[in-house]
């Protein structure tokens, strides 16, 4: 386990470890600086998805599953500030339909089981296995990571489910009964009036949610202070994927979104791989539910971010990364 920083004054052995971590010579992706376009077979043909490796470590490799659906890898750029000094190899990844990856227009591709098979194809292409493969999923990525584990956990060394409850019904109830009543009454009444008319794409509706809900429960900062990776991520979000699976906003899953009835609470006991669940005090997801998930899986740990919301890698960064790094290092050292 390496606890040094390459910016401090390392010992000679630490310097050697830094050099090995940063050395891309002999890597098949050296020409593109760690980038690999991976062919993905789907029921509608073959497409390519974008990945980028950072670092080298034969026993600690983390594949990052972004949220959305249809968001981008950009929301994890802050991992650059924490993983390298811990000697953790990690992979940025735009899922099919997202940013640098192919963006086919066939809506039938935005299907949870197909995404699970996509992750498995990415794993194989990157050479990840049970000796080194940690799967991190946040929000929609947490849905995808948990479904992947239910089918392919034999390939995993560790699983991280961040900011995602295991039932959309529970998610919607928490939003409606706990979080929504905390909004100013006039704002809530206006939002609910648009929802009653199913005017989910109305600019006023979306503007009110962004101003009054997102700044409390998605990322606890005024919109004009949002980190650049978040702004770019929203700018590059693919609405076809997002609306098809999630609906028009983070204010619960609405309409005919394909994830509306998703629920795996009764299957969590099937997950045996070391699992970290991450919850945040001000999240759109109930942190008590996230803690409960850690007790339902067979080998779990819970990380609470007391200052954070849905994107706690930014608004509670110290607690988030301290706990996440400790989990990866503990599993790697056999001390979990």
How is this structure best described in words?
- The protein is of the alpha/beta class and 336 residues long.
- It has a single domain, classed as Rossmann fold.
- It contains eleven helices and eight strands.
- An eight-stranded mixed β-sheet has the order 1-2-4-3-5-6-7-8, sandwiched between helices.
- A hairpin with a 2-residue loop joins strand 1 and strand 2.
- Helix 2 packs across helix 3 and helix 5 packs across helix 6.
- It is globular and about 60 Å long.
- The N terminus is likely disordered.
Strand order of the largest sheet: 1-2-4-3-5-6-7-8
CATH H level, superfamily name = Alpha/Beta hydrolase fold, catalytic domain
CATH topology: Rossmann fold
**Which structural class is indicated by helix and strand composition?**
alpha/beta
What is the CATH-assigned architecture? 3-Layer(aba) Sandwich
Share of helix among residues? 25-40%
Topology of this protein?
Layout: H1 12-22, E1 35-42, E2 45-54, E3 61-65, E4 89-94, H2 112-126, E5 133-138, H3 140-152, E6 158-162, H4 168-179, H5 185-196, H6 203-217, H7 228-236, H8 239-245, E7 275-280, H9 287-296, E8 300-305, H10 312-315, H11 317-332
Parallel strand pairs: 3-4, 3-5, 5-6, 6-7, 7-8
Antiparallel strand pairs: 1-2, 2-4
Helix pairs in contact: 2-3, 5-6
Summarize the structure.
GO terms for molecular function: peptidase activity. This protein is of the alpha/beta class. It has helices spanning 12-22, 112-126, 140-152, 168-179, 185-196, 203-217, 228-236, 239-245, 287-296, 312-315, 317-332, and strands at 35-42, 45-54, 61-65, 89-94, 133-138, 158-162, 275-280, 300-305.
């Amino acid at each position: 386990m390496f606890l040094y920083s390459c910016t401090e004054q390392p010992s000679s052995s630490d310097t050697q470890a830094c050099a090995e971590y940063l050395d891309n010579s002999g890597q098949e992706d050296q020409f593109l600086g760690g980038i690999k376009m991976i062919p993905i077979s789907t029921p509608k043909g073959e497409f390519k998805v974008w990945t980028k490796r950072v670092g080298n470590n034969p026993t600690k490799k983390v594949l990052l599953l972004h949220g959305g659906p249809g968001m981008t890898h950009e929301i994890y750029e802050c991992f650059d500030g924490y993983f390298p000094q811990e000697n953790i190899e990690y992979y940025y990844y735009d899922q099919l339909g997202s940013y640098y990856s192919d963006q086919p227009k066939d809506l039938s591709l935005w299907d949870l089981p197909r995404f699970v098979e996509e992750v498995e194809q990415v794993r194989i292409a990157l050479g990840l296995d049970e000796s080194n493969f940690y799967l991190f999923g946040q929000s929609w990525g947490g849905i995808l990571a948990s479904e992947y584990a239910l089918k392919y956990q034999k390939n995993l060394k560790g699983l991280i489910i961040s900011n995602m409850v295991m039932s959309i019904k529970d998610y919607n109830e928490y939003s409606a009964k706990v979080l929504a009543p905390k909004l100013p009454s006039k704002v809530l009444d206006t939002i609910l009036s648009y929802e009653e008319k199913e005017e989910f794409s109305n600019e006023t509706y979306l503007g009110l949610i962004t101003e009054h809900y997102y700044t409390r429960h998605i990322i606890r900062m005024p919109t004009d202070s949002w980190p650049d990776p978040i702004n770019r991520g929203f700018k590059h979000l693919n609405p076809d994927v997002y609306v098809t699976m999630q609906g028009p906003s983070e204010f619960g899953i609405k309409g005919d979104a394909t994830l509306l009835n998703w629920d795996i609470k009764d299957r969590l006991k099937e997950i045996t791989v070391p699992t970290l669940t991450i919850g945040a005090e001000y999240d759109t997801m109930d942190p008590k539910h996230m803690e409960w998930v850690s007790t339902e899986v067979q080998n779990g740990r819970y990380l609470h971010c007391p200052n954070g919301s849905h994107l706690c890698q930014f608004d509670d960064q110290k607690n988030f990364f301290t706990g996440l790094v400790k989990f990866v290092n503990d599993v790697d050292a056999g001390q979990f």
